[in-house]
């Protein structure tokens, strides 16, 4: 084949161009191409390019120091111990304690190391969506973005369930459950739309209130003579161990360290700040989980009771009803941390709908139905995305907790493995790029880093397929569906471009090559054709 001319738009946003504003062709500027033949939309393998250096002006706008990053990290990776009781119900106390000690080393630390290198290469907001897109291009970036979105939506649905589960120590009607769920999600959505400033200022108070009941419970355990460490050794019969739920719950508890890369564009100080915030929160998380589990099982040493959702309130009731109500309040503050999750997901969705030259992954209204606070100078508040996240999370909360947490991990597996693949790809393609932090032992270290993650994911999928093969099939079909949607989306755009190109030819509008960059149609410099650039790919 000969040369193929592939045109793409510049990074100018539609709102910044006077001609586009007056002509109403903002969307067209991102979709109009000039070809003899329709363009190829399935992206060719990309050659990753190093990001531009951070300017002093950009560095001056960053505000997240190590302390703030650690607080954000705590809420993204832990946010309190509520919701982990199912691990004891699935595998008994001893296996649960072992998992909660070992998994930080074999699951969380590799994530943190990977995220540190990638976030310090691409010091911009977006996290794994940016990393995978830059490493592999549009198609793999699309697959990764939707698996990341699915993972986060399942996580938010779990939070909605936990909020209701901790409020009551008895069964309530389905109608009452849904009224409470709707009210909770409505408040979360409203807070996100109006702004999160006051939430962030109260984050330390929330942290104290959600952990205080467990500290009091530990003291009461000794006072009432309920400290019985010998019960910690119990292991259920082999046929009663629910391996996939045990692994999924532990991974759910220790996941999300890579999500700190979402805020890489706001971290001031580079390597030292990021590593301090990233690794500083891990010991806190381990203590935050182990103390309630050790104390709780000493008070209620029957692992079958722990199969109930939100059993920490049941344990607190044994000490006294007053402690149960403290536990309910603490869980409410913990689950209210969903506001941070919705903020994170909605901004990712907003970016996925952005009408730029990279693959637009969601409808434009999710991007356009938003506003900036403080008269256009403050943070973006993506109203449509916030509402969509709230509605989907509410709907998914109808699924059983045991299924939700396993589906979350199944979607997370694809997302996480693509992140590790991006690390290896960028290490291979940009070997000489100076890195503030690098995975130890270079390429060998990068290849070895995901091995424990692959082992955990493989084990979980094996046992999930044995017990609930439908869950694994849902994950597989989801990826097939989003791949087909990608191809259809690209085909529709290809056909639309062909029609527009033919119409322009019939109207006598023909693009003319100019020296250097860009195209001209012989019209004014403000024609939107002049916004296009080109490159030549030789086959």
Overall description:
The chain has 539 residues and is mainly alpha-helical. The chain is built from 20 helices and six strands. The chain has helices at residues 18-23, 56-60, 66-77, 85-121, 128-136, 138-167, 174-194, 197-201, 203-223, 243-254, 271-299, 311-319, 321-336, 338-352, 365-368, 373-376, 383-396, 401-429, 442-448, 451-506, and strands spanning 3-9, 371-372, 380-381, 512-513, 519-520, 532-538. Strands 1-6 form a two-stranded antiparallel sheet. The chain has a two-stranded antiparallel ribbon with strand order 2-3. The protein has a two-stranded antiparallel sheet with strand order 4-5. A hairpin with a 5-residue loop joins strand 4 (512-513) and strand 5. Helix 6 (138-167) packs antiparallel against helix 13, helix 6 crosses helix 17 (383-396) and helix 18 (401-429) runs antiparallel to helix 19 (442-448). The longest helix is centred in the last third of the chain and has 56 residues, at 451-506. The radius of gyration is 25 Å and the shape is globular. The model is unreliable at 1-44 and 512-539 (pLDDT under 50).
């Amino acid at each position: 084949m000969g040369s193929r001319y592939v045109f793409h738009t510049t990074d100018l946003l539609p709102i910044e161009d006077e001609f586009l504003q007056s002509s109403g062709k903002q969307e067209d500027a991102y979709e109009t191409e000039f070809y003899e033949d329709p363009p190829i939309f399935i992206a060719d393998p990309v050659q990753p390019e190093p990001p531009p250096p951070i300017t002093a002006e950009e560095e001056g706008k960053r505000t997240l120091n190590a302390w703030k990053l650690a607080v954000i990290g705590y809420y993204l990776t832990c946010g309190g111990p509520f919701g982990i009781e199912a691990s004891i119900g699935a595998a008994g106390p001893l296996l649960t304690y072992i998992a909660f000690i070992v998994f930080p080393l074999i699951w969380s630390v590799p994530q943190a190391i990977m995220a540190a290198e990638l976030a310090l290469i691409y010091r911009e907001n977006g996290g794994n969506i940016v990393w995978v897109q830059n490493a592999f291009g549009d198609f793999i970036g699309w697959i990764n973005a939707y698996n990341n979105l699915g993972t986060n939506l399942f996580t938010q649905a779990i939070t909605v369930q936990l909020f209701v589960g901790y409020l009551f120590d008895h069964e309530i009607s389905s109608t009452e459950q849904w009224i409470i769920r709707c009210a909770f999600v409505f408040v979360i959505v409203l807070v996100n739309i109006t702004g999160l400033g006051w939430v962030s200022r109260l984050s330390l108070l929330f942290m104290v209130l959600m952990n205080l009941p467990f500290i009091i419970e530990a003291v009461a355990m000794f006072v009432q003579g309920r400290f019985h460490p010998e019960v910690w050794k119990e292991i259920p019969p082999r046929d009663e161990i629910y391996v996939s739920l045990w692994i999924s719950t532990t991974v759910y508890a220790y996941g999300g360290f890579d999500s700190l890369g979402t805020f890489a564009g706001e971290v001031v100080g580079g390597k030292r700040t990021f590593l301090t915030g990233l690794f500083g929160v891990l010991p806190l998380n381990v203590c935050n989980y182990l103390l309630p589990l050790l104390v709780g099982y000493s008070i209620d040493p029957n692992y079958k009771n722990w199969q109930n959702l939100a059993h920490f309130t049941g344990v607190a009731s044994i000490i006294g009803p007053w402690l149960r109500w403290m536990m309910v309040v603490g869980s409410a503050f913990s689950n209210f941390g969903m506001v941070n999750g919705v903020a994170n997901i909605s901004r990712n969705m907003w970016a996925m709908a952005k009408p730029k030259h990279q693959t637009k992954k969601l409808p434009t209204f999710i991007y356009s139905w938003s506003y900036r606070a403080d008269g256009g100078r403050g943070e973006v508040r993506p109203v449509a995305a916030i509402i969509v996240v709230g509605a989907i999370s509410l709907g998914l909360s109808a699924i059983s907790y045991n299924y939700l947490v396993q589906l979350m991990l199944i979607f997370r597996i694809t997302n996480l493995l693509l992140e590790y693949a991006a690390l290896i790809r960028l290490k291979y393609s940009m070997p000489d790029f100076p890195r503030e932090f690098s995975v130890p032992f270079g390429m060998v270290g990068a290849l070895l880093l995901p091995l424990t993650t692959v082992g955990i994911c493989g084990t979980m999928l094996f046992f999930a397929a044995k017990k609930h093969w439908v869950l694994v099939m849902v994950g597989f079909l989801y990826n097939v569906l989003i791949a087909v949607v990608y191809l259809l989306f690209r085909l529709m755009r290809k056909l639309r471009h062909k029609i527009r190109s033919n119409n322009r030819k019939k109207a006598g509008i023909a693009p003319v090559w100019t020296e250097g960059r860009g195209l001209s149609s012989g019209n004014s410099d403000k024609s939107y054709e002049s916004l296009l650039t080109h490159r030549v790919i030789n086959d």
